[in-house]
Design goal:
Shape: globular
Radius of gyration: 19 Å
Largest sheet: 6 strands, antiparallel
Distance between the termini: 70 Å
Strand content: 25-35%
Length: 144
């Protein structure tokens, strides 16, 4: 009988956990990927301690998908643009602190720095060059 009670408790506990990709959030996969590649690693690096003259790490961040549908680049690869907003304490959200895109098939994440898009690893201190043609939607095909 105790085993049955524990199984009900386990089922209740699992049902109460938030879903990472719910039906009302079609780009949950993209948010999860951005969280894995940018938010968590950058947060861990910034909270590493030590004295720094850089800005303090944000207290909160949120990932927004900035378009209602996927786009395709000139190579016909599907991507989704995103933005990361941050805030410190109880201040207002600072929108578009980081902007970029995530590719569905490869899972690669790029961020906009200057006029180009670079792999997201640049935010972790790696020296990476801009990648041509990523995160730029190709014009729609001409209709005849």
């Amino acid at each position: 009988m105790k085993a049955i009670r524990w199984s009900y408790f386990g089922a209740f506990a699992l049902a109460s956990l938030p879903s990472f990709a719910s039906a009302d959030e079609p780009f949950g996969w993209a948010k999860n990927r951005v969280d894995e590649v940018i938010v968590k690693p950058v947060s861990a690096r910034e909270r590493g301690g030590g004295f720094s003259r850089g800005r303090p790490p944000p207290r909160q961040s949120r990932i927004r998908i900035t378009q209602a549908s996927e786009s395709r680049d000139a190579s016909n690869r599907a991507f989704v643009p995103f933005a990361i907003d941050v805030r410190w304490g109880s201040s207002e959200w600072n929108k578009d602190d980081v902007v970029g895109c995530v590719y569905r098939e490869s899972g690669k994440v790029f961020v906009k720095i200057g006029d180009g898009y670079r792999p997201a690893a640049i935010l972790l201190g790696k020296d990476l060059e801009p990648v041509a043609g990523v995160c730029v939607a190709a014009p729609p095909p001409a209709r005849s």
